[in-house]
Every structure is written in structure tokens, then in C-alpha cells.
Amino acid sequence: MIKNSAFINKLIFIFFAVILLLMILGGRFFTNIEEDTYVSEEEDRIVVGVSQLGSESGWRTANTESVQNAFTQQNGYFLIFNNARQKQENQIKAIRSFISQRVDYIVFAPVVETGWETVLQEAREADIPVILMDRKVNVRNDGLYVTCVGSDFVEEGERAGRWLEEDLARRGMDERNVNIVVLKGTQGSSSQIGRTIGFSVVAAKHDNWNILEQEYADFTSAKGKEVMESFLRKHPDIDVVVSHNDDMTFGAIEAIRASGRTVGIGGEITIISFDAVRGALEMVADGTINVDIECNPNQGEYLSRVIEMLEAGEKVEKQYYVEENVFTMENVTEELLEERNY
Ligand code: GZL
Fold first, then answer.
1. What's the CA-to-centroid distance between 60 and ligand 1, angstroms?
2. Which residues line ligand 1 (CB under 6 A)?
3. Which residues of the chain have pLDDT under 50?
4. Rounded CA separation 188/136 (Å)
5. pTM of the predicted structure, to 2 decimals
6. What percent of the chain has pLDDT over 90?
7. Residue whose CA is at the smallest distance from ligand 1 atom 2
8. Residue 13: partners with Cβ closer than 8 Å, 6 or more residues away
9. 252 CB burial (10 A radius; 0-12, 13-18, 19+)
């Protein structure tokens, strides 16, 4: 009898162990599908697949936080988030994964403008709406995406140019030769393309503005420092640095100071930066950076509003621009720095 009951106990134990194993494998708990991809517990909510291009800058971190704060369980979303680590092929892989998981919406920040036709066509055939965030895509048929929530990068570039016009006039230098170098963001990204176009449009109006050199520095601090060191070796007479984001600016300022030259208000080299993340605004407040053209990363609320409109069957615009400002020592106040979330 004892033998039988021990055998039965073993059978019961094995039975419940198998049941428990099937529950864990069958459930949708926090599971690591791919590195940097996670899914929150599934319920009956709007499933959004987000492909973020990377984590290359302070701006990108703030942009990611904004998206994750918007697509929460409390707000009725089921978020699948993937960090593509700056690689387009990772974004394409993530989008295909979202399609196979039959998400309700795909949201992605395209690392570059080209190379998206095929995968966006696959999303269209799967009848999954695609929403662009931050940057744009260059496709023959803009019906491949529903809308874009981001910035007007050409306007940002023009704002930088107009500020330089005003600054030079203010200092009585609008007739003097001005030597400029440009640190450009990731080659082929709409932020790099737009800012380059915008600044060039203004620069073209001034024969005395000499753009000595423009080089890509991938929106990172390390690359910004490296390229700035190269500029300084080749050009001893730089008057202005235009840097497409604050991270590259931080690297460039380090290189300039290491070369023995000075920056900012009253310095030898004027610094024009983009993004306006907190650390840079603190340098605007102390005069190290002359002007910072804001690029607002807080796009999560805009994105969830667009999805709410689509869920309600409302028409959405093809493009939504986030609100942005231009910061100088005059308008960077303690209150501003306290209330900002990036
Ligand atoms: C701008 C965004 C850029 C930021 C950089 O919308 O695409 O990418 O300016 C970021 O900081 O890396």
C-alpha cells in the first residue's frame, strides 16, 4: 500500500508541475523576446509596437521616456518596445516582429529617411497603421504611413541662421568675414537633412559667411569631439560652430577648450546648438553656449492623442509639429530649468 501511495503522490506532483510549467510558458508575462525588447502583461488593451532608433543622446532618452509614459497600462495600452541601437536593419526586424504579433499600431522613429518602402508595404498589407515619430521617411507613396509627429527641422535650421544674423548685427560684425564649421547629425536622418537645409538657406544670403567645413558626427559627444579636433587642426580661424545636437556640442566644447581657445558669450568661438536638453541649457545660462534651438522630445502625448483619434474614427493630419523655442541667456531662467522634464 505504501508503495502505491508513494507512486500516486509522485504522479500528482508531476501532474501539477506540468500544469504550472504550461501556465508560465503560455502566459504573456514580462519576457525578454529580444535584447531591449520587452512586453508588458497582456490584457484587452491597444497594442502598440514601438521601434525606437537608439539611445545615442540625452534627447533620445527623453523621447523614449515620453513614449513609455504615454503608452502605459493605466492609459489602456499594451506596449512592445524595441531599441534598434542605431541600426536600420534592427528597426526593420522589429517592425516585422510587430506585424507577426498583429499589433494594433506601429510607431517608429526612422534612423534614416530611405529604405523603408518594403517593410511599410508589408505593414500596409497586414492592415496595421504606421505612425512616424521624431523623424520622417522618404517614400514614393506617403500613404504608407498615417501621420508623423515630430519637428520642423528646416525651420530649426533657419532659426539658427536667423539668430546668427541678429547676433552678428548686434555685435557690429555683419560686414566682417565669419568662418563657420558645422557638426552634422547622423547622415541621411531628417533632423540632419532639415537642419542643414535650413541653416544653408540663411547662410546663402551672406557672402561674408564662409562655411569652412561640414562633417557628420552622428549626434554623439565622442564623435563631436573627434570631428571638432579635426576642424581645429585644419582651421585656426573658426568663429562659429553650428552643432546639430547638444551631445556633439558637449564634445566640441571639450575639444575647443583643450586647444586653448574660448567659447560662448565674450569667447573666441560662438556656439550654436540644437535640442536644448537640461545640461545644455545650464551652459546657455552661464554663457558657454550662445544659443540653443529647441527640439522637443515630448512626443508621447501627441502620439497617444493621435491613436485616440484613430480609434474614434476621426481624421488625422499628415503631420503634427511639436512646440519648440529658441533659448539664449535672456530666457533660460531658474524657473524654466526647474519645470522642464528634460
Ligand atoms: C531630433 C532627433 C535628433 C536629436 C538628437 O528630432 O532626431 O536625434 O536632435 C537625436 O539629439 O540623436
1. 6
2. 56-57, 59-60, 134-135, 151, 185, 191, 219, 245, 247, 274-275, 295
3. 1-3, 24-34
4. 10
5. 0.87
6. 86
7. 191
8. none
9. buried
